[in-house]
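quick one before i forget lol
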Amino acid sequence: MTSEILRKGRSVCNINSDIHTEKGLVTRGLFCFGAKRDSVFDRTFIDQTELVLPDRCPEYETGANAFKPKFIEKFEMRVMEGCKQDHKGDCTSHKLWIRHRDRKEPDTLTSLIAVADIPAAVIAPMFPSPAGFVSMSWYFDIVSDDLETRDGWWLVEETAENASQGYTSQSMLVRNSDGNPVLIGRQNMVLFT
């Protein structure tokens, strides 16, 4: 892995990190870190959502025949809103409570990113048969410096926006257990179905 500071100003630093294998570039990460600044604004323009707490939501089931990566076993997931894996119709959004099974995992940026990366493509329940998908691009903004949540639960909301020609794109919002936005993102994926 190589990293390089692209620009460093008074309150913002831009960093590029590349991971290479013998076949070439595998991953490129562009990071922008900003320090707090005084502003006349301190508000969120994202609508609040009515929360149904995780203990009142059913467990997320991937289904016996569904494509299920091994790492997913390291997380607990509950469906606040959305489709089950065997759904037979349109399923273009979901709201999932997700947390690390290892309760010793601290509320850090790294653990939050891992939680945000767990859900399958939003449209996966609509696949005609179990199939894979791979992220092509994923970017996100951290919109709060308060990375704490109660009992480790984060609410991950995703909405599919397009699926055609073997690709799908979706938006993402992660909230803490009080419903406050913490991460806002977008993702584009290759579909193998």
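fyi The two ends are 33 Å apart (CA to CA).
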